[in-house]
Amino acid sequence: MAIDPTSPVPKYSQLRDILLDWIVETGLSVDDPIPSERELGVRYGLSRMTVRQTIDLLVSEGKLYRVPGKGTFVARPKIEMSLALASFTEDMRARGFRPGSQDLLRRVVPASGGTARAMGLPPEAPVHHIERLRTADDEPMAVERSNIPVDLAPDLDRHPLTGRSLYSVLEQEYGIILDSGEQTIEAGICDPADAKLLGLPQGSPVLSMRRRSFANGRCVELAISRYRADRYTLHSRLDPRR
Ligand code: GLP
Fold first, then answer.
1. Is 211 in the pocket of ligand 1 (CB under 6 A)?
2. Whose CA is nearest to atom 13 of ligand 1?
């Protein structure tokens, strides 16, 4: 395919689609190099700046990655996240990854006004505040910040969660089986602290998720999670309208 100079679609965007098709058609696989920016410029009659804009876009979309001094390569496909009330551990295992968890911060705090309202708790009720780095095959994937009412899981702070699933600790130690939940997902930007934890440049895109999960009508967890947008995509089945 060639660039259409009469098209209203910007050239960098046309080149994006052409390159993605080309990668599939030529059978390039993960970690294979793509031609240099100069070669692509010559091949498609585009300025180096336009080619760079396309590569930047494909890198930010997680389709390509750069290695300084070496070139640009085909990235791994993103991980599809199901929109179910699954734990990170279950979700990663189902996709063939080795899940991991590292405790970053554990403390008991009075719930803030917003947290107490969202969880249906009295003002300033004590909650476990848990910050964790989640990994898949040892690669940082997400930073998760969970709040759990202390009255539901009194000595949860005595259970290290490094290398353990929070949902299975809740089930095994406290008999809490989550039975419903709701989740809001929005686009976000990595703040400097999360960027460092996730090993991303500052300002990288993230998927920001806010989940409330319930057991027997009580809110057990309010969690804000930041997932790397370069490694994750959301997938949901669409049923016909009733
Ligand atoms: C998901 C949710 C979190 C929840 C976690 C539990 O990642 N977004 O809100 O805390 O699962 O996962 P695990 O049981 O593996 O700790």
1. yes
2. 165
